[in-house]
Amino acid sequence: MSEAWRSRLFAVWMVFLICAYTTLCGAVMFVSWGLVKAKTAQACDRQCAGLASFYGSESGPRTSSGQRFRPSAMTAAHRCLPFGTKLRVTYAEREVTVTINDRGPFIRGRVLDLSEGAARVIGLIDRGVGRVGCEVL
């Protein structure tokens, strides 16, 4: 391989690395400066009513927030509320406070997916799906 060929190859690699670096820096600045806006609790309704179900009987897989899923935890999945949002869920005159840590439900007409533990507290286990009310705390 000639010296001229090596210097051209080096120059091509340097241009590639500089382009990749500036692209990544631009993406980081976009997010950190707030130019990309995620949906917040204000963009979602602070109160909702509709069908809810429960999911997950196995511990271990990670949720959309990165936490490990635990069926006994008081958690829920919602389409747009930020992770960590506390939500009061009411069903058949029972209520439970859950923390949003996952995305869903992905079935049309449902507003919430509860963990098995939260569904058990409000008595939703037997029916599987039920009409709930929810309110951001």
From TrEMBL:
Superkingdom of this protein's organism: Bacteria
Entry protein name: Endolytic peptidoglycan transglycosylase RlpA
Keyword terms, alphabetized: Cell wall biogenesis/degradation, Lipoprotein, Lyase, Membrane, Transmembrane, Transmembrane helix
Gene3D superfamilies: RlpA-like domain
Role noted for this protein: Lytic transglycosylase with a strong preference for naked glycan strands that lack stem peptides.
EC number: 4.2.2.-
Enzyme class label: lyase
GO terms under biological process: cell wall organization; peptidoglycan metabolic process
Family indicated by similarity: Belongs to the RlpA family.
Signal peptide: none
Pfam families associated with the record: DPBB_1
UniProt keyword annotation of Transmembrane present: yes
GO terms, molecular function: lytic endotransglycosylase activity
HAMAP family noted in UniProt: RlpA (MF_02071)
PANTHER family tied to this protein: ENDOLYTIC PEPTIDOGLYCAN TRANSGLYCOSYLASE RLPA, ENDOLYTIC PEPTIDOGLYCAN TRANSGLYCOSYLASE RLPA-RELATED
Domain RlpA-like protein double-psi beta-barrel: 49-132
Membrane-crossing segments per the record: 12-36
